[in-house]
């Protein structure tokens, strides 16, 4: 009953405000990024646009300062420099006009150092370790261990350019019987709706 009363009060206030030309103030969204000096630490749910707005800078400035190859990919725990000397970045018209609204992803997608040796195209399936009662986390991938032994670092590139870096830490029923298949650990909420994808896979040395 209290909820209905509050809803009616809000509706009445908004209606009267509109009738008399009064603007009703709304509360600004809370931004999760942790700001410390000249650095912003990305939190879950952040976007580059929100961080730029909060810190009084622009998306282009953040992209240039932090040498971001993809303005739609920021990572939870990633530290972004907020001010400094920028370098000009070359962008196609389509990428320049594209809003940076992709939410921060998990640290398992952070780039690994070293050279990458292509292993060709693999089929990708997905699973959520937590759903299976496992505490292995989301930084791993199940593979046929005769192809990729445990501990192998992989670079996985999807057809749209999205790149994941994972470490082989398991072998599942699907991957064990299919040498050209990887079973990628991922939260259920982030698993692609297609269910099965293909990607170019490289070993990071």
TrEMBL record:
Residues 88-119 are annotated as: Disordered. PROSITE patterns: LYSM. Gene3D superfamilies: LysM domain. Residues 109-119 have a biased composition (Polar residues). Keywords: Hydrolase, Signal. It comes from the Bacteria. Pfam families: LysM. The keyword Signal applies. Residues 38-82 form the LysM domain. One of its GO terms (molecular function) is hydrolase activity. CDD domains: LysM. The keyword Hydrolase applies. Residues 88-108 have a biased composition (Low complexity). Residues 1-27 form the signal peptide. SUPFAM superfamilies: LysM domain (SSF54106). SMART domains: LysM. This is Cell wall-associated hydrolase. It comes from Lacticaseibacillus nasuensis JCM 17158. The lineage of its organism: Bacteria, Bacillati, Bacillota, Bacilli, Lactobacillales.
């Amino acid at each position: 009953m209290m909820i209905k009363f509050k809803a009616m009060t809000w509706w009445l206030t908004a209606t009267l405000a509109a009738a008399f030309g009064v603007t009703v103030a709304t509360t600004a969204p809370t931004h999760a990024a942790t700001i410390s000096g000249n650095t912003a630490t990305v939190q879950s749910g952040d976007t580059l646009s929100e961080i730029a707005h909060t810190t009084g800078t622009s998306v282009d400035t953040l992209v240039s300062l932090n040498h971001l190859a993809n303005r739609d990919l920021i990572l939870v725990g990633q530290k972004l420099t907020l001010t400094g000397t920028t370098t000009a970045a070359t962008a196609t018209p389509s990428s320049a006009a594209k809003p940076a609204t992709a939410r921060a992803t998990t640290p398992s997608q952070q780039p690994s150092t070293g050279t990458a040796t292509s292993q060709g195209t693999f089929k990708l399936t997905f699973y959520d370790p937590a759903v299976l009662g496992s505490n292995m986390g989301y930084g791993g991938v199940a593979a046929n261990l005769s192809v990729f032994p445990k501990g192998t670092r992989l670079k996985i590139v999807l057809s749209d350019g999205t790149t994941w870096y994972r470490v082989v830490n398991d072998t599942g029923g699907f991957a064990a019987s299919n040498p050209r298949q990887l079973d990628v650990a991922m939260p259920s909420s982030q698993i692609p709706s297609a269910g099965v994808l293909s990607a170019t896979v490289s070993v990071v040395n």
